[in-house]
Amino acid sequence: MSDSNHTSPSFFLTGLPGLEAAHIWLSIPLCAMYIASLAGNSLILWVVKSEPSLHQPMYYFLSMLAVTDLGLSASTLPTMFTIYMLGLREVALDMCLLQLFFIHTFSIMESSVLLTMAFDRFVAISSPLRYSTILTNPRIASLGLAIIVRSVGLHIPAPIMLKKLPYCQKRLLSHSYCLHPDVMKLACADTRINSAYGLFVVLSTLGIDSVLIVFSYGLILQTVLSIASKAERLKALNTCVSHICSVLLFYTPMIGLSMIHRFGKWASPCSRVLLSYLHFLTPPVLNPVVYTIKTKQIRLRILRIFRSGRGGIEDTHGH
Predict the structure, then answer these.
(1) What is the per-residue pLDDT for 313?
(2) What is the CATH number of domain 14-311?
(3) Where do the domains of the chain lie?
(4) CA dist 121 → 4, 118, 223, 236 (Å)
(5) 81/305: higher pLDDT
(6) Rounded CA gap, 9 and 3, in Å?
(7) C-alpha to C-alpha distance for 79 and 85, rounded to whole angstroms
(8) What's the burial of 137, exposed, middle or buried (CB within 10 Å: 0-12/13-18/19+)?
(9) What is the mean pLDDT of residues 263-276?
(10) Do 118 and 213 meet the contact criterion of CB atoms below 8 Å apart?
């Protein structure tokens, strides 16, 4: 038992409990989701880069969201692939800590980008004439840098603290990838400091971000209601629909998952795993779909690409 404290331990990940025999079949829709995420977010980035009319703050923030979604997909992919395709559940401590660092870092980045997008919508609706002077390119670059520094800086201590803990219990994790609370539970030592730090990070990032997003929409609603024309009101609100969908896609499963972790002793292991998949796998897949459907400029540009690819037919109508 004491030797396990000094040797680097391994952990065992969990797929969908009770469906182990079907893992190879479940790998097909999971692979499709990863391919869709890679294709959709790469397409968004390429369209924004290649279309000069999209070189605006809103689309720069959308590009940040696409990069974050690609990072989140890449963070969960290695262990999902080994569990469902290869049937391998064991993961070394160092690899586990590296994965949880990237998953949590990109998750906080996603939350931060959604907050900056809420601010972008607020500025666009409340001060349309000053929009380009408030959200200048250097300011957007500074916001992007601040998001990276905040997300990375807050998560560097977590794996270092976990690395120092002894692990001598049955090392079975309850998810298909390594997450901070999950790994921490398997330590056979006092983890109150780790738990307090984890709670501090969650409250100071996801907690504050969600409150500020709600506050931003309160201000947006106040501004919209002061607009006299009903058509203008609907037009202003319509520019927020994509962002609201992305916020709901990200925060709803996360809130459900945290509630189950705190209070849901009754919840089945399968429901935890599915909620976790909803939180980490669906936003990278659906965000590009939502923005393509709701954003006319992106939709037209993508249609133009496919049309020219299918026969060189040029769309002369532009916008």
Answers:
(1) 43
(2) 1.20.1070.10
(3) 14-311
(4) 53, 5, 11, 9
(5) 81
(6) 10
(7) 10
(8) exposed
(9) 72
(10) yes
